[in-house]
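Review session, final week

We close the course with one last complete record, chosen because it touches almost every idea we covered. It is Carbohydrate-binding protein, a protein from Streptomyces lomondensis with 734 residues. Go through it on your own first, then we will talk.
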Amino acid sequence: MSTFHLSRRAVLAGTAATAAVAALPVLQGHAQAAVPAAGAAYRWRNAVQGGTGFITGVLFHPTARGLAYARTDIGGAYRWDDRTGRWSPLTDHLGWDDWNLLGVEAMAVDPAHPNRVYLALGTYAQSWAGNGAVLRSEDRGATWKRTDLTVKLGANEDGRGCGERLLVDPRDSDTLWLGTRHDGLLKSTDRGATWQAASFPATPSATGQGITFLVAAGRTVYAGWGDSDGTAGKPNLYRTSDGTTWEAVPGQPTGAAAKVPIRAAYDRHTCELYVTYANAPGPNGQSDGSVHKLRTSSGKWTEVTPVKPGGTTSDGGTDAFGYGGVAVDARRPGTLVVSTNNRWAEIDTVFRSTNGGRTWTSLKDTAVFDVSETPYLKWGGDKPKFGWWIQALALDPYDSEHVVYGTGATLYGTRDLRNWAPQIRGLEEASIRQLVSPPTGEAHLISGSGDIGVMYHERLTASPSRGMASNPVFGTSTGLSLAAAKPSYVVRAGWGDNGNGAWSNDGGKTWAPFQAQPSMAKSAPGPIATNADGSVLLWSFGTSNPGFRSADNGATWSEVASFPKGAAPVADPVDPKRFYAFDTTTGTLFASTDGGETFTARATGLSSGDTEFQLVAAPGRSGDLWLSLKWNGLYRSTDGGAAFTKVASCWASYTLGFGKAAEGASYPAVYMVGSTESITAVYRSDDEAKSWVRVNDDQHQWGWIGAAITGDPRVYGRVYIATNGRGVQYGEPA
């Protein structure tokens, strides 16, 4: 399968959802309206991985025991239920057109009204992204009302671990504040229904951080400001006591170690505000930082930094890092936790103090980890690490020893300050790139993702017991292919720690790296395909490099000059001599009949310039090709790509796959994420795309889902969907 889709930055997270859907529409032909379809209801769940993405914020409700919320950079928001020990996704209803709202910039709760929760949504603040929005709920996120903003937010940009930038005013539950990156301070006086610009003394820049957090200290609101350079006369901490007039906080710390205020927490018992700082917003790029506290009753500042960055590491390097999360104990005065961030050499930690920051204990030093539920956290080794990118940090207001912290891959929690385990059930935030459902073997699914490589799912209800595919370990997976006539043989490509390609002879359980690889594989690993019997590999390396071929399981490679640059190879599922590739720059289908040694042009004049497309070969049939085009719909060839015919039943097709045929049908079920009329949804066809049944519903849309889709060749009706932030979703007829 050939896939090109939206890129996703380095670290991500999440999954988890289940529910039955209501009766769904069937659509037939381009111009036919939706009509009810009986028996089309689906139940949707996550294929469990257990996190895998960046948790950017965790917020315990201060007055409702066992209630908490979590936010992610690209995978939406979640609510914690202490009784079940699970997170429930709150934003899966956001659809294709609202993909930019799956990133959660900030969240807020109302201490006086436990059922109220607010989310500020917007993944990117770039010109090509849509504006942000605020969701408000009176029932803990079961239902939402939405207000679209006129400004952009940046939940997946630098500074995404700062916060919270959204706050219910401590004097008035109807008043909310929202700090933006480039548009100053916004204020709502009707519980988030409408928003207006509020006066603020600092001027935002086009590229800065703007307001990094808003926090209540009694009846006063404090705001962190990320666009100062940290020098005297350029403050980065402001406050208002009347909700109208803001002033710079006197005596605040200056210098590189206090350049960007990251987070703040207020101890109501001691009237002290704790602020973490770094020399950059993070999560990357921090090399200095500090922790300070302000006694709000007297205005006295005190530095309480646990360990100052800049020391010497065990290997003689520099211990460079910033500070990230901070949380105070609501039950014990002067007790708090803070986290380091971007501390790669000595590994990040959480420090705890019981005396207002005079002395600290590193919880990492005595930590015992149990990652048996999510073995991938061993990262291909024999034990887990404390984590990285720790900016989300929270302390349960009803349990002084219940601490949680987010990382670039999970959420760890402890109930005794010593024993830690992922507190991640139900929260899945992976960006999935490839899906393979083998026709035989133990696993019904193999997935490839951004950041967490490839996983072999022997069960869909538990995190893969083998963790990430190792030997080598990949960060981002770029290619995954199974030999159709020899499904025990699988190959993968990606950004690896010891090579960029690997093969498996046991269906993906264990792997071995290719003995050799083309020189460009290290800097530009791309899609890879194996032919039907596993005797030939084709590997692509971007638009400026030729394709390469191996006929000895990756021991040697030879250039294929006639392979179209930038295309993704697709193997014929029956004939091992045949490969195909679509060149979107010219709108030409290329084919090989000599095992990938040479390619020649076949169909020409097809849609060109479509950056999101897939070429898919129907299983069990030679030369039966489907070309899925975002802007021009769906095309089919039954003669190996010599000619294509447009499929009339849809006008846009984003991704296509196949599964087990319906009872009595001779052709595999076809699954598509696409558009018929104005609806972009997930569809199944049992009659070779003559008609479609919608199989998802309005509560299960998951934003952008154009990377990959496949049915299960052994279970009719089961379909797997790759999401860009909500992991692998799989549906089955209810």
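Two points worth writing down before the exam:
The chain has no helices and 63 strands.
Confidence is low (pLDDT under 50) at residues 1-39.
Good luck, everyone.
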